[in-house]
Task: inverse folding
């Protein structure tokens, strides 16, 4: 990893270092760019889901099979996990490794609860007759939420690896960029869920 | 003096890492070596794609020909396009960008050297996976590079070909997106002091725009192929009208990627031309700002034109008119560049080296390609011209006359920097003229063929329709083009051994890559350069020019920091291992979900990632 | 420049001019059957009228810009003795650059306005059109006249001077319906219905081809549009509406029997093809009720003669590999009989 050179003052050098991203570490920058492409991934999936949400068997549409209260609870859990993520970062910025591990575990735990809840909801929906191949609504719903769930799963693994790294002294109050980047990813996954929940669950057409 | 610390951890596998010999190429993370790997690999794939083109032209040389059976022909033309676009042209541009851009911007390497290596290995292994579809056991993709649904559904495409398409292109997409992220971060964060974006070489500008295009366009294609994967493997109906799916969804998702993709293909070549012309005209690019910003404009507008590929699908007059408007609008920034390039030549002292010939040839051919594009942007005219050889003419004028000529200019221009030797100018001129004549003989008549009613993607045509003579001419032209390419290979190989020594600055260049030895040392610069203008090396060489640029007298050109440590990752196996994991996983998916391969792939990939992460932690 | 180089360049320039001359073809009408430059139908003619001025504008731009490029290369080449010289280090000229940004924008805007006007004309469908339903199949064309009760394949008959409105559908994959001299192309997309109209101005036979890659035999998915005088068209309609007359003697009768045979060992032609007035009601392949009256067979590939019919029936895969009509293991005699039968169905 390269660090930027510091330019010494020289009376004759009117050097302007054009760095609008001053201070943004290259790895964070890389993650932001990656998240940019992820926006398009989820954008394409959401577009497909919106296109096909009316294509379902009678009585097996979004309004019939989606459990909004339960899913709202899941959304709340995920939002809570973003809070714990912020707390984890704040902890290590203070040098508090104990609290970092605690809050990271809490985030991973909440993420796992989310996944468990998703699995439960999926099994109910499948039981009612909506599957990946039963209708286009089912196909696009499961593809979209499946992609999101996979992202959450990868995030949970990542958080646990951060915990492992912290246990061996990998992070301290000067070196916490890994936590920041994991946090960026995690918050993104959370935001995507908010969008999915709004468009696919809350704004599903009636009837 | 800067001290450079190279981490040489052997990682979890404790494998020894070589620094010399051919195994060292397997573990390299140096941008120059990776650039050379990209360039050589893309050249080989270019030859494969070219042979496929010659097969096409042999089949179409005479009417009712039986040289290639229809099912073989359909694989050949599909793979010709896929190989040329994804395995030859894009990687060649990446190869040049890899080698040159970090040096141009005064950096010591890319921002993420290991990710850079991963991009290459994934590309190579993905390309090999792709080529293996030709084995009779499988069958290559045969539904065209655009793979319109529902032709790609299982019932119409029985062979494994479309599986290779879906999986292979996603593998290559990983390489491209990773590379794009690398270039964006490198260009935005690692420029030398004083090199603001408005002082950056235009090839770096175009690389930056292209990288953003890749980041925002590829995901649409990724999702399109994922949905097609589900249709073929799991029985969904995303694109299957029999199950309620809409075939046009594929087209929208595909072209939302596909159109920016063509700008991804042309912009690097435009960047190269913008470097070569000023060097051999001995004056700056005319209108740097316009050229840079028109590239950005093309990037943005490139996302607004996609449905001009769909004018015949019945989108309706409002949609057609909107996309017609944006498609015509994009002609403006493109045209501006041409005039700026001519303005660069005007009033110069033109040295007609081979690189310069190719750059001028680029302009001449791109003018034609651009003009034929304008009529295609008009929906009524497009209804007669789309899906005919008129489009084949248009695309080859911009992709070959444009991109390939630009890349050839880059080859002759930067070969001395990469190898330390000059290419033969004599062979080069023969190469240029043979290729120029052959190219025009092949593709100019295709405008006529299209207008006279010859559709695309047909393995044969009937006599008496007026297609016979010019198809024969085109086929002869293709072989002349092939001869030209052969001359290029001969020149490359001969010059590698016998080319005269180039020195660090054979062309009196103005950009930073010419300020370092040829070939450059491992970390490019002994000390970080300081930049005061768009032509930093001329400032260093010519005090009068520096004075004109407003560089203060006595200002330092090098940053001599004491106690400053540069950390760069050392050679490592892990990117290669992760790429192998992806390769195995991909094969597992291609073979209709062969679980042993999938698990093996995930395991190998996980080991690679683990080692990689450990190395990162040790940095 | 040394003399031999000048000669070569002059010869090259001559060759290029000849090549470029092909580009000027739009200046003249073309005799080629599928040429877009010889419109005989209103739709194609309207497009042609838009194209020609744009074409000439393109030629002008091409000539001027290439000329300026070539001139600048010739004029500003480094002459011997100039090696050390630096030319004036001009960085640009903002006014000029604005001018050559605005100028193309204006040209393009004009083209856009012309385009929109033409689009409006093409979008207004004429009333009192003859309705035809086009269904694309891999690799043949089905034509139905819903108001006239006619179903046929690969040959479309229309009366001269009367607008025809086509609804375009597909039975399998995306195809594209294109008869260049009469109209621009429009895709047939499964699951969707598209529309196209044209009015043929002159009697004659017009060739067309599928123009969207649709699988193995996309190249052999041709079609014919036969523009009749009104009286000829009416006669054709009357004949097409009749059920088939089954022959009772000779090879044709044998062929009829074989065609309609329901036993296990028979080729079962009836299972894929329809012959109105018989119990052959298959919908997989083209309607053969009046196949004898068509000018071509195999989607425009072969002239409609008993010999060609027999060849096709005997070994379709040798003529059109991958076609959905399999080789049925018929003897040459059987094929000839069937051909005689089908030829009799006028």
Result:
């Amino acid at each position: 990893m390269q660090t930027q050179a510091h330019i010494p003052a020289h009376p004759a050098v009117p050097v302007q270092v054009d760095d609008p991203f001053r201070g943004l570490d290259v790895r964070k920058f890389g993650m932001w760019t990656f998240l940019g492409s992820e926006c398009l991934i989820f954008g394409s999936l959401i577009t497909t889901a919106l296109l096909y949400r009316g294509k379902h068997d009678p009585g097996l549409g979004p309004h019939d099979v989606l459990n909004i209260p339960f899913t709202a609870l899941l959304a709340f859990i995920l939002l809570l996990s973003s809070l714990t993520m912020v707390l984890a970062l704040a902890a290590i910025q203070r040098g508090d490794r104990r609290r970092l591990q605690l809050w990271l575990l809490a985030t991973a735990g909440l993420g796992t609860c989310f996944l468990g809840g998703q699995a439960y909801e999926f099994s109910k929906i499948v039981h009612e007759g909506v599957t990946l191949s039963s209708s286009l609504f089912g196909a696009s719903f499961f593809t979209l939420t499946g992609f999101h769930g996979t992202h959450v799963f990868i995030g949970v693994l990542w958080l646990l690896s951060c915990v492992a790294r912290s246990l061996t002294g990998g992070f301290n109050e000067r070196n916490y960029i890994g936590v920041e980047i994991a946090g960026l990813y995690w918050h993104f996954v959370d935001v995507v869920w908010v969008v999915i929940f709004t468009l696919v669950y809350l704004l599903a057409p009636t009837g | 003096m800067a001290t450079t610390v190279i981490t040489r951890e052997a990682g979890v596998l404790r494998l020894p890492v070589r620094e010399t010999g051919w195994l060292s190429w397997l573990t390299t993370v140096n941008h120059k070596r990776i650039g050379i790997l990209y360039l050589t690999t893309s050249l080989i794939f270019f030859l494969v794609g070219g042979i496929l083109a010659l097969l096409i032209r042999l089949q179409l040389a005479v009417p009712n020909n039986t040289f290639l059976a229809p099912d073989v022909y359909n694989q050949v033309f599909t793979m010709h396009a896929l190989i040329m676009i994804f395995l030859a042209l894009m990687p060649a541009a990446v190869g040049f960008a890899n080698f040159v851009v970090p040096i141009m911007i005064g950096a010591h390497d890319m921002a993420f050297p290991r990710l850079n290596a991963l991009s290459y290995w994934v590309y190579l292994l993905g390309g090999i996976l792709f080529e293996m579809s030709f084995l009779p056991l499988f069958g290559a993709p045969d539904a065209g590079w655009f793979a319109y649904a529902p032709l790609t559904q299982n019932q119409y495409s029985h062979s494994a070909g479309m599986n290779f398409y879906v999986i292979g292109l996603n593998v290559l997409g990983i390489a491209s997106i990773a590379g794009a992220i690398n270039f964006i971060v490198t260009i935005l964060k690692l420029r030398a002091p004083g090199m603001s974006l408005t002082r950056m070489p235009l090839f770096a500008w175009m690389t930056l725009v292209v990288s953003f295009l890749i980041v925002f366009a590829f995901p649409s294609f990724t999702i399109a192929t994922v949905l097609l994967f589900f249709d073929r493997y799991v029985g969904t109906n995303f694109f299957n009208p029999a199950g309620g799916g809409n075939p046009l969804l594929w087209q929208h998702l595909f072209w939302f990627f596909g159109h920016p993709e063509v700008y991804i293909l042309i912009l690097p070549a435009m960047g190269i031309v913008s470097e070569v012309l000023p060097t051999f005209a001995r004056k700056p690019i005319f209108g740097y700002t316009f050229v840079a910003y028109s590239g950005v404009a093309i990037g943005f507008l490139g996302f607004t034109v996609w449905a001009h590929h769909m004018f015949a699908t019945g989108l309706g007059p409002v949609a057609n008119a909107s996309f017609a408007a944006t498609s015509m609008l994009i002609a403006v920034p493109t045209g501006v560049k041409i005039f700026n390039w001519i303005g660069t030549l005007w009033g110069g002292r033109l040295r007609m080296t081979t690189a310069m010939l190719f750059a001028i040839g680029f302009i001449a051919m791109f003018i034609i390609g651009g003009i034929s594009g304008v009529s295609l942007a008009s929906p009524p005219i497009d209804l007669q011209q789309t899906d005919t050889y008129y489009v084949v003419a248009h695309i080859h004028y911009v992709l070959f006359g444009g991109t390939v000529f630009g890349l050839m200019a880059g080859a002759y221009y930067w070969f001395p920097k990469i190898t330390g030797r000059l290419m033969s100018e004599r062979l080069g001129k023969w190469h240029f003229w043979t290729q120029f004549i052959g190219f025009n003989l092949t593709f100019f008549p295709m405008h006529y063929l299209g207008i006279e009613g010859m559709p695309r993607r047909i393995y044969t045509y009937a006599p008496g329709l007026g297609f016979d003579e010019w198809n024969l001419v085109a086929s002869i032209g293709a072989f002349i083009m092939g001869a030209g390419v052969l001359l290029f290979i001969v020149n490359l190989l001969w010059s590698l051994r016998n080319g005269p020594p180039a020195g660090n600055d054979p062309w009196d260049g103005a950009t930073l890559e010419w300020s370092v030895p040829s070939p450059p040392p491992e970390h490019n610069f002994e000390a970080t350069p300081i930049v005061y203008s768009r032509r930093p090396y001329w400032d260093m060489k010519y005090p009068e020019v520096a004075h004109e640029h407003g560089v203060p007298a006595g200002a330092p050109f090098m940053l001599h920091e004491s106690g400053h440590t540069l950390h760069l990752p050392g050679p490592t196996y892990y990117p290669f291992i992760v790429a192998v994991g992806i390769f195995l996983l991909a094969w597992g998916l291609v073979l209709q979900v062969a679980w042993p391969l999938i698990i093996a792939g995930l395991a190998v990939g996980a080991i690679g990632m683990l080692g990689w992460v450990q190395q990162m932690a040790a940095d | 420049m040394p003399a031999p180089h000048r000669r070569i360049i002059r010869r090259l320039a001559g060759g290029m001019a000849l090549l470029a001359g092909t580009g000027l073809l739009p200046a003249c009408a073309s005799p080629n059957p599928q040429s877009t430059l010889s419109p005989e139908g209103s739709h194609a003619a309207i497009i042609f009228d838009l194209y020609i001025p744009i074409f000439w504008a393109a030629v002008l731009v091409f000539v001027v810009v290439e000329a300026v490029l070539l001139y600048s290369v010739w004029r500003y080449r480094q002459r011997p003795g100039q090696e050390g010289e630096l030319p004036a280090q001009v960085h640009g000229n903002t006014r000029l650059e604005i001018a050559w940004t605005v100028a193309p924008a204006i040209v393009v805007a004009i083209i856009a306005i012309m385009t929109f006007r033409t689009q409006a004309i093409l979008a207004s469908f004429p009333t009192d059109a003859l309705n035809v339903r086009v269904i694309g199949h891999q690799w043949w064309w089905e034509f139905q006249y819903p108001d006239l009760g006619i179903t046929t394949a690969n040959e479309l008959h229309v009366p001269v001077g009367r607008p025809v409105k086509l609804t375009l559908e597909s039975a399998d994959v995306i195809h594209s319906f294109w008869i260049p001299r009469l109209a621009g192309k429009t895709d047939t997309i499964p699951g969707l219905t598209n529309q196209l109209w044209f009015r043929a101005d002159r009697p004659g036979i017009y060739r067309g081809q599928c123009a969207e890659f649709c699988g193995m035999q996309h190249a052999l998915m041709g079609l014919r549009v036969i523009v009749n005088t009104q009286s000829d068209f009416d006669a054709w309609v009357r004949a097409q509406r009749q059920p088939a007359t089954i022959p009772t003697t000779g090879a044709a009768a044998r062929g009829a029997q074989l065609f309609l045979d329901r036993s296990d060992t028979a080729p079962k032609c009836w299972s894929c093809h329809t012959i109105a007035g018989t119990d052959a009601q298959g919908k997989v392949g083209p309607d053969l009720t009046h196949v004898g009256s068509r000018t071509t067979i195999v989607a425009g590939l072969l002239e409609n003669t008993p010999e060609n019919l027999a060849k096709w029936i005997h070994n379709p895969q040798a003529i059109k590999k991958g076609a959905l009509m399999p080789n049925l293991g018929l003897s040459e005699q059987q094929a000839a009989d069937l051909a005689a039968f089908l030829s009799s169905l006028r």
